[in-house]
Amino acid sequence: xxxxxxxxxxxxxxxxxxxxxxxxxxxxxxxxxxxxxxxxxxxxxxxxxxxxxxxxxxxxxxxxxxxxxxxxxxxxxxxxxxxxxxxxxxxxxxxxxxxxxxxxxxxxxxxxxxxxxxxxxxxxxxxxxxxxxxxxxxxxxxxxxxxxxxxxxxxxxxxxxxxxxxxxxxxxxxxxxxxxxxxxxxxxxxxxxxxxxxxxxxxxxxxxxxxxxxxxxxxxxxxxxxxxxxxxxxxxxxxxxxxxxxxxxxxxxxxxxxxxxxxxxxxxxxxxxxxxxxxxxxxxxxxxxxxxxxxxxxxxxxxxxxxxxxxxxxxxxxxxxxxxxxxxxxxxxxxxxxxxxxxxxxxxxxxxxxxxxxxxxxxxxxxxxxxxxxxxxxxxxxxxxxxxxxxxxxxxxxxxxxxxxxxxxxxxxxxxxxxxxxxxxxxxxxxxxxxxxxxxxxxxxxxxxxxxxxxxxxxxxxxxxxxxxxxxxxxxxxxx
Length: 480
Ligand SMILES: Cc1cc2nc3c(=O)[nH]c(=O)nc-3n(C[C@H](O)[C@H](O)[C@H](O)COP(=O)(O)OP(=O)(O)OC[C@H]3O[C@@H](n4cnc5c(N)ncnc54)[C@H](O)[C@@H]3O)c2cc1C
Ligand SMILES: NC(=O)c1ccc[n+]([C@@H]2O[C@H](COP(=O)([O-])OP(=O)(O)OC[C@H]3O[C@@H](n4cnc5c(N)ncnc54)[C@H](O)[C@@H]3O)[C@@H](O)[C@H]2O)c1
Fold this sequence. Notes:
Belongs to the class-I pyridine nucleotide-disulfide oxidoreductase family. GO terms for molecular function: dihydrolipoyl dehydrogenase (NADH) activity; flavin adenine dinucleotide binding. This is Oxidoreductase. InterPro entries: Class-I_Pyr_Nuc-Dis_Oxidored, FAD/NAD-bd_sf, FAD/NAD-binding_dom, FAD/NAD-linked_Rdtase_dimer_sf, Pyr_nuc-diS_OxRdtase, Pyr_nucl-diS_OxRdtase_dimer. It comes from Agromyces bauzanensis. With about 475 residues, this protein is an alpha/beta fold. The chain has 3 domains: about 1-40 and about 95-145 and about 270-355, FAD/NAD(P)-binding domain, CATH 3.50.50; about 155-265, FAD/NAD(P)-binding domain (3-Layer(bba) Sandwich), CATH 3.50.50; about 370-480, FAD/NAD-linked reductase, C-terminal dimerisation domain (Enolase-like, domain 1), CATH 3.30.390.30. Helices cover about 30% and strands about 25% of the residues. It has 15 helices and 20 strands. It is globular, with a radius of gyration of 24 Å. Bound molecules: flavin-adenine dinucleotide and nicotinamide-adenine-dinucleotide. The site of flavin-adenine dinucleotide has 35 residues, from helix 1, strand 2, helix 2, helix 3 and strand 3.
């Protein structure tokens, strides 16, 4: 069977859903092809379950840090209740709600595995074994996401390691968990499982949270140790073995070994592009999809602008919110190109995902929270920017001390001295996540640092750290 539609979105994760929402809002008949659950990795095995697994212990720690509330705590974390709350938030791994939303806005769902079959053509193998070929009048958008990388460490695959899916969907925390990697998944899952009382060992080849300011990783190493986790920096596994007793033994390059009940591999992602027919349009199977600012894939065969890639699969920023932002730009540009209306792909134009380069916000929900947007000091210097740094302790804001007794944290602003604007910000400490958006707004809006002195943070909130940062940078002189 073969049928024509306006737009085919391959992959119904959070990003594919957003693309489809914009193309159908633009009046285009849109079909999402999804082989598992509408909502994708984020909803069922990534963002949502990981954050719900983290939240209860974080709330308990927060209460313990406030004298008066701490005395009221008489019990410990109810792990079974945490897992039940996680199950609720992932809808017990069913997508009835998400499918209901597709129906309500008029997006069609084709349930099955899709692959390209030449320009504009997608073959869908349905779960019942039948096949349908969809032909796109205007566009095909690949939003198939990414899979975890399992590095070629001898014995690792045979030892049946956990990946992020196992860690976020576990029914019963293991007594001992070793984690290979020092990035976002590793630090968040170490925080979650240490909170459950699991004996966590983190095996990190360099430092924690490599893409962040160095003080972020240092704070998380200290925070995790404070939760009882062992953080081993500068080690690499050389061999992994699952014993007959079911334990996992990980041998390290310093000849020591770690024994655990499970080992979680958290060493980055690989694109889900191996079996989606990229070879039929002259692209390389298994590669990240290289796109322009409107998410149009470079180098695909076929007439006209027809192949787009959004979300993890284009490797611009492996984050749900950033992929959804790309999805809005791509969906709108597809509709504009279909109708022949004006396309604005200039920097910060409605159809360009400019923020992917300038202002990608990220919140790491570890102990403590680490949040950042834009450039680190080192990245700004590498980019040739003349840098001024504002650096203060979070507790310099009275709001921090009121939030938690003995509050400790740190904040940094990276300023482009030439342009007089903020190009990067990092905050580390309890409950700093909500501070981030002000920094994102300052960067995207290119608000002059001198003008920020007129953005008065309320007393006594944590936002007063902005004032402390400005004071550290120095009060401006009156204009001549
Ligand atoms: C443990 C963990 C925690 C995370 N936490 C956060 C967080 O807190 N905040 C954040 O912003 N990001 C977080 N991320 C990253 C986030 O999950 C991803 O950036 C996001 O899921 C990407 O969305 P996507 O739609 O591109 O891909 P996905 O969510 O992976 O969705 C892709 C969809 O495509 C479908 N698909 C693939 N191939 C085919 C095919 N051939 N045919 C049909 N369907 C197909 C898949 O079944 C899937 O539903 C986390 C990641 C992990 C691993
Ligand atoms: N809160 C959030 O925003 C959030 C949470 C989780 C994941 N994510 C996203 O998901 C993506 C995947 O996360 P991740 O933690 O898997 O990747 P990552 O890139 O953040 O970290 C990978 C880590 O693995 C290490 N590593 C890589 N290869 C290795 C090897 N062979 N041996 C030992 N260590 C090795 C790296 O040094 C690094 O510490 C990230 O891009 C992240 O942005 C976001």
